[in-house]
Write a structure and sequence with these properties.
Blueprint lengths: L1 E4 L7 H17 L3 E4 L6 H10 L1 E4 L10 E4 L6 H9 L3 E4 L3 H15 L3 E5 L5 H7 L6 E4 L16 E5 L5 H14 L13 H14 L4 E5 L5 H12 L3 E5 L15 E6 L5 H14 L3 E4 L13 H4 L7
Parallel strand pairs: 1-11, 1-12, 2-3, 2-4, 4-5, 6-7, 6-8, 9-10, 9-11
């Protein structure tokens, strides 16, 4: 069996930053450190941080007054931030800088009097945070079919923004439908989309040209991981989304000579290596890394954590 690895795959800069923030907070303040929502959508990452002393909660109300609190990479609404202030929580914000950029774009459009259309998935934590950050009227849509049902106040004062875990390819048809119905609509440049989402989807499409089956490592509640599986299937290749090697069904690769592996933006690289080891248990394996974009993006950590002095008692 020949195993082809997608490039790039796995952790993006926003995920690396978010995990580092939790680890640095634990080192600086000591456990427990409270994290609102999963810091990133991966059970292995969450469990490893939990074992170090992180406590994950769904609601701010579950956190003791004054405790060190981290907001996840997905971002939070202004209401959540206000509640944390009222409770006297010592907040460290791990919101991905690219998510913050979407917030600022939406706020800028709203300030200029535009009605906003947000392209994203209802119920996703990032979308909930964005909806709670942009003032005025915001319409949430996810499919081309949703465009026809939009009821806007002024078709000449419309702007759109998108969820970061959607690529240019994911949103293209929806944006085209918006422009067809509302020719005056404006939106951010394509260069403003999440580089990691776009790069990983392009890499899995390239990977699909070389293999008979694609194995995607990632959580089932991870939007970008699920999309990687869909991208492979769109290329006409069998594809399976698994959390780790223990979830591999040997029948998926039985008789296959070329197997592809990639990982979602919140999946650690050791899970990829674990899957390769599992495949080796089934027979001889040769591994080849496909050529692709080499990412060198790094986001600055909060000064609150990088300063040497500890928190006042």
């Amino acid at each position: 069996m020949k195993v082809f690895l997608a490039q790039p795959r796995g952790f993006c800069a926003g995920v690396e930053r978010a995990i580092a923030i939790v680890e640095m907070a634990l080192a600086k303040y000591g456990p427990p450190v409270y994290v609102r929502h999963e810091i990133v959508h991966n059970p292995h990452v969450v469990e490893r941080l939990r074992q170090k002393g992180a406590v994950f909660v769904e609601e701010t109300s579950e956190i003791p007054q004054g405790a060190v609190t981290i907001f996840s990479a997905h971002g939070v609404s202004e209401a959540v931030e206000s509640e944390a202030t009222t409770m006297g929580l010592d907040v460290i914000d791990a919101t991905c800088p690219l998510v913050e950029k979407v917030h600022k774009e939406g706020q800028r459009y709203a300030k200029q009097g535009y009605e906003i259309i947000l392209i994203g998935h209802d119920g996703h934590p990032e979308v909930e945070g964005t909806l709670g950050r942009v003032p005025g009227t915001v319409h949430l849509i996810s499919e081309v079919e949703d465009v026809a049902g939009l009821n806007v106040a002024d078709a000449n004062k419309l702007a759109y923004i998108t969820q970061t875990t959607l690529s240019v390819d994911d949103t293209r048809e929806v944006i085209e439908a918006l422009k067809a119905r509302f020719p005056a609509i404006i939106g951010p440049a394509t260069k403003d989309i999440c580089y990691a989402t776009q790069n990983r989807q392009a890499a899995v499409r390239e990977l699909s040209k070389h293999v008979e089956v694609v194995l995607v490592i990632g959580a089932h509640n991870s939007s970008n991981s699920s999309r990687l599986q869909e991208c492979a299937k769109e290329e006409g290749v069998e594809a399976y989304l698994i959390e780790d090697a223990t979830k591999l069904d040997a029948a998926w690769v039985q008789g296959k000579q070329r197997v592809g592996i990639t990982a979602g933006a919140s999946a650690p690289e050791d899970l990829v290596q674990g899957l390769i080891d599992r495949l080796r248990e089934l027979g001889p394996v040769e591994v080849e890394l496909l050529s692709g974009i080499e990412e060198n993006v790094h986001f600055r950590l909060p000064t609150k954590l990088t300063q040497m002095e500890g928190r006042a008692a």
